[in-house]
């Protein structure tokens, strides 16, 4: 078990696996967002943060892309749940994708 945890930490540092952390109203995502389990981790973390905050800040440090399930979930938060979602994006390619999808204003996306 300890060996598995060490392997996950190494893969996370190599940005092969996505890692997620929360602090106050901020959810920070490192690595690439690409799997169903990544979506489930993001949803679980954001659900926990939004319980006590009407503003949720999502920091995506280096992911090149974002899955459609995550986009749909974030849209639901903004449009249905009326959460003030603010996205901070580290990768220009992801920022361009959000712009092409007309989501920059919806997610209040900015470059970090």
Please identify the structural class as seen in this structure.
Answer: alpha/beta
Oligomer: single chain
What's the Cα radius of gyration? 14 Å
CATH superfamily: STAS domain
Give the proportion of residues in helices: 40-55%
Query: How many structurally independent domains?
Result: 1
Largest sheet: 5 strands, mixed
Order of helices and strands: HEEHEHEHE
Instruction: Note the overall shape.
Output: globular
State the name of the first-level CATH class: Alpha Beta
Number of helices: 4
Order of the strands making up the biggest sheet: 1-2-3-4-5
Fold-level CATH name: Transcription Regulator spoIIAA
Number of strands: 5
Describe the structure.
The chain has 112 residues and is of the alpha/beta class. It has a single domain, classed as STAS domain (Transcription Regulator spoIIAA). Helices cover 43% and strands 21% of the residues. The protein has four helices and five strands. It has a five-stranded mixed β-sheet. A hairpin with a 2-residue loop joins strand 1 and strand 2. The radius of gyration is 14 Å and the shape is globular. The mean pLDDT is 89.
């Amino acid at each position: 078990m300890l060996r598995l945890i060490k392997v996950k930490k190494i893969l996370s540092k190599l940005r092969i696996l996505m890692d997620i952390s929360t602090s106050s109203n901020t959810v920070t995502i490192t690595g690439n967002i690409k799997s169903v389990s990544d979506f489930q981790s993001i949803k679980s973390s954001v659900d926990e943060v939004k319980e006590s905050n009407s503003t949720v800040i999502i920091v995506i440090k280096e992911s090149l892309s974002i899955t459609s399930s995550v986009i749909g979930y974030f849209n639901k938060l903004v449009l249905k749940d009326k959460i003030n979602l603010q996205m901070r994006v580290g990768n220009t390619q992801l920022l361009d994708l959000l712009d092409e999808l007309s989501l920059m204003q919806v997610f209040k996306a900015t470059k970090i």
